[in-house]
# Entry
Amino acid sequence: METRTETTFDTIQNENHKIIGDYIEARKTETGVNLSGNFQSLAMRTLNYLSRHTRKNFKDVTREDIVSFLNSLRKSETEDPTHRWMQFIQFRTLGWIFFLDFV
# Structure
């Protein structure tokens, strides 16, 4: 039996998936070219991680939620001496945050 929390989170996830799709389409329009499959996959995975991390509708995500999410991805110098985790973050996080202002 589903609890109210599970149902609510499923609804939030469905709404967020629509927003992710809208974001991908907006990026295609903005750049005027097809986005690579790798970019689309990375964007969708990252935004799905963000959705699960915050458990909020993207429209309700705050700066603190974004900072918490980014900090959850941080790795120690020992784990990642070349700082590759930052490349994951830099996939256009700021573009996504600005996109949220228009949703």
In short: The chain is about 70% helix and 0% strand. The chain has a mean pLDDT of 78. The chain has one domain: 4-100.
